[in-house]
Automatic annotation (TrEMBL):
This is Sulfotransferase. It is an enzyme of class 2 (transferase). It comes from the Eukaryota. Coiled coil: none annotated. InterPro entries: P-loop_NTPase, Sulfotransferase_dom. GO terms for molecular function: sulfotransferase activity. Its EC number is 2.8.2.-. SUPFAM superfamilies: P-loop containing nucleoside triphosphate hydrolases. The lineage of its organism: Eukaryota, Viridiplantae, Streptophyta, Embryophyta, Tracheophyta. GO terms for biological process: sulfation. GO terms for cellular component: cytoplasm. Residues 21-139 form the Sulfotransferase domain. It comes from Zea mays. Keywords: Transferase. Belongs to the sulfotransferase 1 family.
């Protein structure tokens, strides 16, 4: 059973977020790899080509990581990145939230709102291995005790 209360972790995300018809959401499971950085760069460059032509020497992707150009929807509700409504259209946003936890304005009213969802998936076993390797490297730096799990425990 998933024990994750989205409103506790990201207050206002369900009640305040209003998708626009031009919004594009890049949805993936954490550590899914599979070209998510490349997809962020491609989506940003494609949707912002009217304001940032590819030949523009000051194009944001020439100076910034794609993760800086396409931020996570959740970060706007953590009071860290500012107001999502201030972003100019078309907005490109990323999220690791599963479809069932997306704000209803996206998931339930998506067809009515006109926003698009691009789902990036990867073989679940590969994600498990990537997540495990990442956690083993990151745990000491984050102050967590390194612990091994069997495949059965991890599932």
């Amino acid at each position: 059973m998933l024990k994750y209360n989205i409103e506790d972790r990201h207050p206002g995300i369900h009640s305040c977020f209003e998708p626009r018809p031009t919004d594009v959401f890049l949805v993936s499971f954490p550590k899914s790899g599979s070209g998510t950085t490349w997809l962020k760069a491609l989506a940003f460059a494609t949707l912002k080509r009217s304001t940032h032509p590819p030949f523009d020497g000051d194009h944001p992707l020439r100076h910034c990581n794609p993760h800086d150009c396409v931020k996570f929807l959740e970060s706007y509700f953590n009071q860290q990145k500012g107001d999502v409504e201030a972003l100019p259209s078309p907005r490109v946003l990323a999220t690791h939230l599963p479809y069932s936890l997306l704000p209803g304005s996206i998931a339930e009213d998506g067809e009515r709102s006109g926003c698009r969802i691009v789902y990036v998936c990867r073989e679940p076993k590969d994600v498990l291995v990537s997540s495990s390797l990442f956690t083993r490297k990151a745990a000491p730096a984050m102050g967590f005790e390194e612990r091994s799990f069997t495949i059965q425990e991890a599932l």
